[in-house]
Amino acid sequence: xxxxxxxxxMDFAVAVIRMCDNIHNRGPLKNQLLRAACSxxxxxxxxxxxxSKDDFIFKLQLALKECNETSYxxxxxxxxxxxxxxxxxxxxxxxxxxxxMLIKSLNTAKVSTP
Length: 114
What we know:
Layout (H helix, E strand, L loop, with lengths): L3 H18 L5 H22 L4 H27 L5 H27 L3
Helix pairs in contact: 1-2, 1-4, 2-3, 3-4
């Protein structure tokens, strides 16, 4: 069963894929954005099946790093005019919510680690 973090990361990846479907240039940059955005959910999924608490934390930290990278690419796409603000704003909001959830999850996991 998927938790809220897994579901949100999947929804976010789908939103980024759909946004990128409308970008007809900037192939290498688009690929970087897609790789980072989709990697968030992949790392969260891996964390759920980690072999230890440390592995779980490590995978969530990787997801957070990918989330921060994705935020950079989204800002770059906005500032360069590759994507207009109306189209990217909801995606940026999803990214920010994911980052908040990841930080909260990491803090909880670290506190509960002996």
